[in-house]
Design brief:
elongated, 12 strands, 17% helix, alpha+beta, single chain, 2 helices, Immunoglobulin-like
Length: 159
């Protein structure tokens, strides 16, 4: 090997040894990814669609969601039921929901969406008994195209 070849090989090795730590610092996982991965990543569900339940009266509840920026909830995906500890079978509840914004969704076509805070108000058929469970169903998506699977959450109601 000539001195010129040796010098070029050494320069190339030096350049590679400097590039690998730089790629690691930039978050790249290969030399081809020096700029980092720019694809959006889904937020955890509790950050994308945080929600809480408020008791308005003994038999009346409000469930409120605050979708993260760039996220929306489907109006048609909301469902609510009350599972009685005594019978064990859930009873469908009717919810009062505001109108959503019209949207043509890539997954469901023409829908109504909620981008901002939205609340559903429920009236139970009776005051909750010990062991009653409120079942809350919903689904939402990120505007960039990630759709979260349908969710079912349970809240044990206090008498």
């Amino acid at each position: 090997m000539t001195f010129k070849h040796w010098s070029q090989t050494l320069s190339l090795l030096l350049l590679c040894s400097l590039a690998l730590p730089l790629a690691a610092q930039l978050g790249g996982n290969s030399l081809g990814g020096l700029g980092g991965d720019t694809r959006p990543r889904p937020l955890p569900l509790d950050q994308a669609f945080p929600w809480f339940v408020s008791e308005l009266a003994e038999d009346r509840f409000r469930i409120t969601w605050n979708p993260a920026s760039g996220h929306y909830l489907y109006r048609h995906a909301f469902a609510f039921s009350l599972q009685s500890a005594a019978s064990g079978s859930p009873r469908t509840l009717t919810a009062e929901l505001p109108e959503g914004l019209p949207k043509t969704d890539q997954f469901f076509g023409d829908i109504e969406a909620y981008y901002d805070t939205v609340s559903a108000e429920l009236t139970l058929p009776r005051a909750p008994a010990a062991g009653d469970i409120l079942i809350i169903e919903y689904q939402g998506c990120a505007e960039w195209g990630f759709c979260y699977p349908p969710q079912q959450q349970q809240v044990e109601l206090q008498p």
